[in-house]
Request: fold
Amino acid sequence: MYSGKYAYRFNGVAMQLGNQFHLVGVGVMDIDAQGKITGFHTSTNTLLDGNSYLTVSRFTLTGTFGPRKDGFGADDLEADIKFVSVDKDASGNPRQVLRGTFSAVPNKASKGKGIWLISTGAFNETTQSKADEVVSGEANKIA
Reply:
């Protein structure tokens, strides 16, 4: 039902070491008939204390998408996505590997072609720590 190619955007706030960052991004993801996700996105963030600069990051993504197993019906959706940084560190490893979980609902006003999402959890696999973020976004079917 949700298989296809989606363009998406997101916007939110993340905390790191007591510092608040604003983050935004855009990307494209494919969801196949089994609910497997593949895709990419570019995001930017900036520290909100006035003494910052813009950081741009690019990620590939893989994961799953579909109805929540313990949910409220077909419109109660969830995604579990692994984000792997395209940028590498000095050893050639991805600079960041993040895992995010999301709650989603269909945007019925888009005639079945849109999904609204919010973050429900995040883990930074690179630092082995929880990532503190609040993100919302929307995805619109493009193919």
Q: What stands out?
A: The chain has one domain: 4-141. The chain is about 0% helix and 65% strand. The chain has a mean pLDDT of 94. The domain at 4-141 is CATH 2.40.160.20 (Porin).
